[in-house]
Specification:
The structure holds 2 protein chains of 2 kinds. By secondary structure, chain A is an all-beta fold. Chain A contains no helices and 12 strands. The radius of gyration of chain A is 13 Å and the shape is globular. In chain B, a hairpin with a 2-residue loop joins strand 5 and strand 6. The chains are: A mainly beta, B mainly beta.
Chain lengths: 114, 119
């Protein structure tokens, strides 16, 4: 079974600064997908970024980028130029290739302060 | 807006009761997933349906059941409710018609959730 661990229950960052959220996972699969989801106070689940395990290049989406270390089973999210709207719970998630379910970590609450 | 709709938004009921949560997937999506988000268990996968058939099961209690209808909407039935069933229940959809089930990655689009409170 796969497990996803987010060791930071809460983090805070000043507006315009950079913050990194950590995630580690455990799997015996060689091909899989990793995700970061954002859940703002509205509770909507929003996909932030996706990484395919077979790709060595780290995924980026505007201010969001990941540091994917396959051997270490680590998948961190970097948010640059933090904005007040980034305040949310962030979930790291795993899905096997050809899989059908997302396995989520416990989440990290991120607060962006002005 | 993800295109996935869930009703009702909020549901308050008593222990021992039965409720039905409804989900309409994005237009054309064949697969529906149900997830539960609670303080105790976090976010966990319950069950998946694909084109009317159960495809995968997660940590779904025997008191819970689901189905997907010919028009592809899905219902999650929760019975003999307990205080611990209070949670946010999400539906997600994926697999547009015409795409192979065992093909490449398909993003799951989440609905807004149904907040269930059991008193």
């Amino acid at each position: 079974a796969q497990t996803v661990t987010q060791s930071q229950p809460e983090m805070s960052v000043q507006e315009a600064e950079t913050v990194t959220l950590s995630c580690t996972y455990d799997t015996s699969e060689s091909n899989y997908y990793l995700f970061w989801y954002k859940q703002p106070p509205s509770r909507q689940m929003i996909l932030v970024i996706r990484q395919e395990a077979y790709k060595q290049q780290n995924a980026t989406e505007n201010r969001f980028s990941v540091n994917f270390q396959k051997a270490a089973k680590s998948f961190s999210l970097k948010i640059s130029d933090s904005q007040l709207g980034d305040t949310a719970m962030y979930f790291c998630a795993f899905m096997k290739q050809y899989g059908n379910k997302l396995v989520f970590g416990a989440g990290t609450i991120l607060r962006v302060k002005s | 807006d993800s295109g996935v709709t869930q009703t009702p938004k909020h549901l308050i009921t008593a222990t021992g009761q039965r409720v039905t949560l409804r989900c309409s997937p994005r237009s054309g999506d064949l697969s529906v997933y149900w997830y539960q988000q609670s303080l105790d268990q976090g976010l966990q996968f319950l069950i998946q349906y694909y084109n009317g058939e159960e495809r995968a099961k997660g940590n779904i209690l025997e008191r819970f059941s689901a189905q997907q209808f010919p028009d592809l909407h899905s219902e999650l039935n929760l019975s003999s409710l307990e205080l611990g069933d209070s949670a946010l229940y999400f539906c997600a959809s994926s697999f547009p018609r015409g795409l192979r089930l065992a093909g490449a990655y398909n993003e799951q689009f989440f609905g807004p959730g149904t907040r269930l409170t059991v008193l």
